[in-house]
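Input record (one chain):
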Amino acid sequence: MDAGPMLRRVKLMNPFEIVQDRIAPERPQPQPVEPKIVNRTARATPVCAACGSDDIICHATAQWSNEAQEWQLANTFNQPARCNTCHSDCNLVWLTLN
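The corresponding structure, as predicted from the sequence alone:
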């Protein structure tokens, strides 16, 4: 009993491609994304201008970056930072760590 022509396609067809061969050519596999290493010359930290504490919080939204493979700050809603040491809204002072 003849079952007809053998199906030789091993991958699914993309319905949005204009030209598709009868047998799909092997596509190169995507290379794994290596984490991007940022070379910063000077590191800094925010501290409370009133008491000097670095125990600071800020309400924010983070967004995943496919390119950088990390969470990135998207929005802070224009809310002030809050110091957990002196329990008040605070202005920030940036101190260099290096």
